[in-house]
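step=encode ok
step=design start
structure_in=
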């Protein structure tokens, strides 16, 4: 019986994670340029860029194809630490992740999980100031990466 309950709890937690709203921002630039613009904007804002995960290169390494697609992982302890203090399990979704990808029509997008939905899954109330700070950071950084100029 415990196994069934544990399995059910695991499935429900995964369903909640999958249900988080995805925010998509259209980019005026190709994937690689958008990734560069995003990482530069993050670094200029004081964030650490921990990784660039080129999913399309991974697929190519096994003889498969994906449209251009790179996951950028970054964070700023001044922004993220309050979330981790409120609930250490927020470390499952921090540092932040933004996926830059080209869709089937050739449009380029930056996508990320809605911070409010992402963090309220943990013991972080919807009105916690960290949520607004993360929302503002993601909006600013993805806007800078996507915009003209």
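sequence_out=
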């Amino acid at each position: 019986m415990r196994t069934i309950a544990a399995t059910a709890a695991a499935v429900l937690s995964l369903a909640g994670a999958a249900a988080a709203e995805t925010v998509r921002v259209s980019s005026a630039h190709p994937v690689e340029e958008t990734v560069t613009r995003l990482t530069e904007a993050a670094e200029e804002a004081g964030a650490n860029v921990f990784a660039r995960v080129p999913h399309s290169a991974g697929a190519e390494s096994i003889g498969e194809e994906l449209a251009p697609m790179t996951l950028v992982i970054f964070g700023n302890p001044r922004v993220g630490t309050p979330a981790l203090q409120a609930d250490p399990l927020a470390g499952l979704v921090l540092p932040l992740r933004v996926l830059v990808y080209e869709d089937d029509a050739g449009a380029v997008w930056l996508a990320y999980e809605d911070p409010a939905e992402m963090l309220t899954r943990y013991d972080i109330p919807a009105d916690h100031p960290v949520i607004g700070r993360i929302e503002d950071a993601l909006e600013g950084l993805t806007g800078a990466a996507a915009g003209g100029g």
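step=design ok
step=annotate ok -> The CA atoms of residues 27 and 146 lie 4 Å apart.
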